[in-house]
Amino acid sequence: MAVPSEPSPMPAYDRVVLVYNPQSSGDGEQRARRCRATLEETAPQLAVALKATEYAGHARVIAEEEARAGRTLVVSVSGDGGYHEVVQGVMAAGDGTVAAAPAAVLPAGNANDHRRATRERPLVDAIAAARLQHLDLLRVSVDGDAPRWAHSYLGLGITPTVALELERGGKGSVREIVTTVRAFSRFRPFAVDVEGEGERRFDSLILANTTEMAKYVTLSDGDPADGLFEVVTLPHRSKLRLLAYAVRAAVGGLGPQPRTDRFAFRTRSPLPVQLDGEVLDLGSDRGVTVEIAPRALPTVV
Questions:
Q1: Is 227 left (phi over 0), alpha (psi -120 to 50) or beta?
Q2: Are 81 and 113 within 8 A, CB to CB?
Q3: Which of 19, 134, 137, 177 has the most C-beta neighbours closer than 10 Å?
């Protein structure tokens, strides 16, 4: 787990902003209000504000504005996708290496991999304690564009697709079976040019700074603060072997995986990529470089 930072002579923040999407199908607004009420009782020294998003991408704007204001903890009351937006915002306000403000996530969505992988105590207790830990992020650059940041993973191919279908369908349900079979039947392998290796064909490629994906898939035994990320690959194989691989990931986990601080590839055709579950469409002949950003995200766990 992450190593706590040295104690500060003053609290790391004196204000908490809870960002939620009022249009979400989850219970984000209710959780945000309950969190505020609890903090007002247990940590009266903290000013706590609620901020509702009004459009797609608004969470990023709010997070950047709050990070620039100073001494604020920005909490995304959401799933991993909403937290992904908040991370973009606090990083945009920083110097390109470390976020300008601490951020955390209060689970209120379908997928909460990051919180499950890092949780040490109830979030309201961690917020009240105001002791920061620093976690790594993935820095994702596409042909020199402004970097994007991933708190958990970058994924291509079948494994993230099936994992997210399982999450949406619900474990043990008929819908789960239908959506998984549909994902397998429609899936086609993809090819990328891997730096230093040339063309490779994969059924799945995941660069992970988390140990879990979509509740049911255990990727590795990695540490989100060790300065490395895991490279989880599945070269193209038969559908039967692919299914066996997916079952192994869901039931027993994939075990130790190779680790690195940099991985680069170039697309050979248009290809969707998932960053913390958010989909980014890449065109053909796009160069992608993923690097670890050590201790880039101050947070409470």
A1: left
A2: no
A3: 19
Name the CA radius of gyration of the chain, rounded: 19
Q: How far is CA 117 from the centre of its chain?
A: 10
d(CA 160, CA 91) in angstroms, rounded, equals 25
Beta bridge mates, 265? 194, 288
For 98, 194, 234, the CA distances from 238, given in Å and listed in that order, are: 43, 22, 11
pTM: 0.84
- 19 forms beta bridges with 51, 76
- Other Cβ atoms less than 10 A from the Cβ of 17: the count is 24
- Walk along the chain (301 residues) in steps of 10 and give the mean pLDDT of each run: 50 94 85 96 96 96 96 93 95 95 88 72 93 95 92 84 59 57 73 96 89 57 84 79 66 72 96 86 95 96 86
What is the amino acid identity at position 91?
Answer: M
d(CA 35, CA 121): 14
